[in-house]
Amino acid sequence: MSDPSPDLSTPAVTMAATDADNSVNVAGVNVAGALEALLLLTAEPVTEFELAQAVGVPESVVAETLAELVAFYEETGRGFELRQVGGGWRYYTREEYADLIATHVLEGQQSKLSQAALETLAVVAYTQPISRARVSAVRGVNVDGVMRTLLARGLIEEVGHDHESGAVLFATTGYFLERMGLQTLDELPPLAPQLPEVEELEAELGQLAEAAAASAQPDAQIVAAPRDAAQEPPQ
To answer: Which SS3 state, helix, strand or coil, does residue 16 take?
Structure first.
């Protein structure tokens, strides 16, 4: 009579058991459950390296488990999804429920950026790192107040100083990428070619300023001419 129990010593069975364990548990830890718990508490994207350290498993296991969770949420039609943005992972509600959330949860609680702030943010995003003075040159207006707003919102930050002028340079932040749903700045829409070069704008503004200054000064020839012309009788 043959033994009905499987031979767990065979390589095939051993490999199958190992694969199954890795898909659910590593060192007694339910990886998927642990990642879900951590990501539910985070207020900003968390990198795979940080998650791996927190759970105590290899980063490759974290990456594989996150991919499985993404597929699982998609297949089961959950109202939320797991996205990789800004260099990390975070839960988001699905786009198809945006109107529902805006109406019943966020209505009256969102403070939108003004048109001036959006334009200034676009200049920084496409020409960074850039100084405050150069942003003002591009926009043609003083942007001190708007820049302070963007700094307070965490959308831009100081990233050093210009070597020639010593002016503070600004660039967008990881939070900007997160809010835009981007991984890197390379994913920005191709609008940069449509923006004038900052140097060209500054040169044009300088020429306009010189022309305005010149027009405000008396013309020596015009001042001298009337002495002779005044002696002639009017025609």
So the answer is: helix
- With contact defined as beta carbons under 8 Å apart, do 68 and 82 qualify? no
Q: What is the CATH number of the domain that holds 33?
A: 1.10.10.10
DSSP string for residues in 84-113: EETTEEEEEE-GGGHHHHIIIIITTT--PP
Count of domains observed in the chain: 2
Give the closest residue to 93 by CA, choosing from 85, 101, 105: 101
166 and 122 both lie in a single domain: yes
Phi, psi for 37 (deg, rounded to 5): -60, -45
Q: What is the mean pLDDT of residues 204-218?
A: 60
Judgement on whether residues 150 and 201 belong to the same structural domain of the protein? yes
| pTM of the shown model | 0.45
